[in-house]
UniProtKB/TrEMBL annotation:
Organism: Luteimonas fraxinea
InterPro entries recorded: Acyl_transf_3_dom, Glucan_succinyl_AcylTrfase
Presence of keyword Acyltransferase: yes
Acyltransferase domain ranges (all copies): 5-374
GO molecular function, one term: acyltransferase activity
Name of the protein: Acyltransferase family protein
Phylogenetic classification of the source organism: Bacteria, Pseudomonadati, Pseudomonadota, Gammaproteobacteria, Lysobacterales
Keywords: Acyltransferase, Membrane, Transferase, Transmembrane, Transmembrane helix
Length: 413
């Protein structure tokens, strides 16, 4: 099989950023998380905001591309069972065996539970509701925490696989061909306009919950990028267009980011009283400034995704040392990382190691834990592999080629 090394590499980069982002959640000010250190770092918010505007959208985009690539050689019907197995089995295992340690640490830190982890796990595995506030999701009887990505991806994948035969029967292939050639301008403009609508209309009414049902703003944000990935996956004309516009897309993303972040900084200064609202009202009303900020947000979020795809295709579509191993490791590390972050922080916070050593040690324990568990257990024990999204048997793969397409190791995600 041919291989798209850039998609592999972007996925590895995206999940590496996810680990750093969740580490930052322990220390960022005013953002809720399952565990918070008293050693808060105010500066952490700014890079996290920049990443947060596209980080999960990038994962759904790459997942859509992976699905689009594999559709070239497998039928939708055949993929339904495969994707369900690859997504729902790790989700169920994660909920029952990986995530509970986060809930226990959270409950211990909140003071809502004082017994040991073994006792907590026996109660948790009953899947019965807890008193609200015991830990995040306690009222449901279980929690999937960071694994929310898997049920969302499963739903989007199933919808795509069910819809594709119908779309093909009514001429969807011709429409897709037109969209990726003469109608390409719609792909440049409609998604950010839709996201602008979602930010203005849906976000205030449907705050993000990651509960799947009723999480309409999240669905409005992720479904279009997933569908876009499926659409462009094997369209050479779209990849050529992205490459040709990589500098323009980069300039648009930087412009949107600068305007958005500048207005965010100004908003903080206004809230703190450092700046007077009168000086800005003289230029235009506060509501107009907010609209400019939301427009910049939508522009940045969309063009950053396109720029990442364009530069990835330009610079990363070649064999990299260790990329195959990293591609396989992505799924297990994704399942493990947040539980290890929360557990490491729970251990280290009482030691009061300070603003440098504490986060560095949390990161080191997380990376070492993911590496050792993946390398020594998951890769080597046949029955463990499917629980972390890997095939039961290690596949002997031919040497990868630089050009062509292949769905990477985390095909379901």
């Amino acid at each position: 099989m041919d291989r798209r090394h850039d998609i592999d590499a972007l996925r590895v980069i995206a999940f590496a950023l996810l680990i750093l982002y969740h580490l930052g959640m322990v220390y960022v000010v005013d953002w809720g998380f399952h565990i918070k250190s008293p050693t808060l770092l105010g500066w952490v918010e700014w890079p996290m905001v920049l990443i947060n505007r596209w980080r999960m959208s990038l994962l759904f985009l790459l997942s859509g591309i992976a699905l689009g690539l594999v559709l070239a050689r497998k039928s939708p019907g055949r993929l339904i069972g495969n994707r369900s197995w690859r997504l729902l089995l790790p989700l169920a295992f994660g909920i029952l065996a990986v995530v509970p340690v986060q809930a226990w640490c959270e409950a211990r830190m909140l003071g809502t539970y004082d017994a040991g982890f073994g006792t907590f796990l026996l109660r948790y595995l009953q899947l019965q509701p807890w008193p609200a506030g015991t830990f995040t999701g306690a009222e449901y009887g279980f929690t999937w925490n960071h694994l929310w990505y898997l049920p969302y991806l499963w739903v989007y994948t199933m919808l795509a696989l069910i819809a594709l035969p119908v779309l093909r029967a009514i001429g969807g292939t011709r429409i897709a061909g037109w969209l990726t050639t003469r109608g390409r301008w719609l792909l440049w403009t409609v998604p950010p306009l839709w996201y602008l609508f979602a930010l203005i209309v849906l976000a205030p009414r449907f705050p993000t919950t990651h509960a799947l049902a009723g999480d309409w703003f999240s669905h409005a944000k992720y479904v279009p990028v997933f569908a876009f990935g499926v659409l462009i996956a094997s369209r050479a004309s779209m990849w050529a267009a992205l490459d040709a516009r990589r500098w323009v897309l980069t300039a648009c993303a930087l412009t949107g980011a600068c305007v958005y972040m500048a207005l965010r900084v100004i908003g903080r200064l206004l809230d703190s009283g450092v700046l007077s609202p009168d000086s800005f009202d003289a230029l235009m009303p506060l509501s107009a400034w907010k609209l400019v900020s939301v427009c910049a947000h939508a522009l940045y979020a969309w063009t950053a995704l396109l720029a990442l795809l364009a530069w990835g295709a330009r610079l990363l579509n070649r064999p990299w040392p260790g990329l195959r191993y990293a591609s396989e490791a992505v799924y297990p590390w994704y399942i493990l990382h947040q539980s290890l972050i929360v557990l490491a922080a729970y251990w280290l916070i009482p030691l009061r190691l300070g603003a440098l050593w504490e986060p560095l040690l949390v990161l080191a324990i997380t990376v070492a834990g993911c590496l050792l568990i993946h390398e020594l257990l998951i890769r080597r024990i046949r029955w463990l592999r499917p629980l972390f999204g890997l095939p039961m048997r290690t596949r002997v793969m031919p040497a990868p080629r630089t050009e062509g397409v292949r769905s990477p190791a985390l095909r379901g995600a």
